[in-house]
Amino acid sequence: MKKLCTTLVAVLAIIQISYGQWTTTGTNISNSNTGNVGIKTTSPTSPLSVVGSNGGTNPGNTAIFSSNLGSSSSVGNQVNITNSTNWGLLLGFDGSGVSTSTYHAANASYVINVLNGPLNLGANNAPNVTILPTGYVGIGTTAPSAKLDVQGGSASIYNTGGSTSLGIGSPATGKTMLALSTSADASGYGNIESVAVGGSTWGNTIINQHGGYLGVATNAPTYPLDVNGVIYSRNELLGNLGVRVHGIPGDNINAAPWYGVGQSNITFTGSTSTATQLAGYFGLNFQTSAGQMVMLSNGFVGIGTTQPDAALAVNGSIHATQVKVTATVPGPDYVFDNDYKLITLAEIKDYIAKNHRLPEVPSAEHMSKEGIDLGNMNLLLLKKVEELTLYLIDKDAKLQSQKKQIEDQNRQLNTQREKSEQQEARIDALEKALTKLISNK
Known about the structure:
The protein is of the alpha+beta class. It has four domains: 2-154, no CATH class; 156-205, no CATH class; 217-328, no CATH class; 345-440. 24% of the residues lie in helices and 25% in strands. It contains four helices and 23 strands. Strands 8-9-10-11 form a four-stranded mixed sheet, with no helix packed on it. The protein has a four-stranded antiparallel sheet with strand order 12-13-14-15, with no helix packed on it. A four-stranded mixed sheet has the order 20-21-22-23, with no helix packed on it. The radius of gyration is 60 Å and the shape is rod-shaped. The N and C termini lie far apart (249 Å).
């Protein structure tokens, strides 16, 4: 009986003590105990430790929830879900900051950490984002091979409040980064450039250093640079020449503003062919270290001069094996017509005495000021040669007539000389006969 009473007293004491530690306030229950509470464990290591099956596919795992991690007093409130082998998830808040050598950065506010394994974030029982212990982040892949590995779709960076930029490279001063950026407005631009961080030095941007083709406005380039469209340079491209290139056959180079190198349909001898064409709206200028050739907007070409006053103006000599000039006036064959009035040499003599030049020939002053029209001048000289030919023919006819007259006169003189000789012979014979007759008397 004494033993039974002692047992009842002990039980009542325990009940009283337990009743004193738990307090019910409305629907809430609290315990003023300053130690740890364990569920399915007699050795709780945290204010609340739950050990047992989690009901998942691996019931051998355990779950522990705590207000801190380990015994470090510098760690704030945290929740640790782990198993006996220390694999698990850590969710916490760090208010005081710890060394950067731990699992989270110094002075960090929120911490999500997986101990000894990857962190997977996902939906519908499928991981969408994976963070490996190496720091590699995978989106669309659970095995990222770089600091950021995106697979299975496109990735976009948006900034609704202004321009957007992305840097690739080292952020250290003196290093070079590749900067990808866009302008703040919808009708703006995208930009790719190399820039030295912390300074204004621009680096070189290299594309396909080890080979391959680059296509602009085409997804099937066949050359190191394949542009399906127009190349335009505001300053220098191939020297001081801005080049606009058209790659599609057709008369596209002649579309305003008529600048650049391209292809155009040109008709040769009745057939149309595609030819390379150089176009300039206000003209073309070909410059060397010692010479210049220009083409004005009116089509005039100047060699050695920038102010051509004709279709072709050459300030210098021309060396050619043949020059062909199309006559714009009729040839002077009319000089040989029967009704052509040929002025007399006496009239020409009087004209030369007054004007010091042949009729119709420009004066020396006029040729010095206006130049010489080779086509018309050659036809004029041909006309003068033909007129000279007529003069020579006329003179020859007169000479032939005079020659005939002289020959006739010579024949007559010869006849008279023969008659005179015969008469002289007769006289001599008479004189001899007379002398003989007188001597015989």
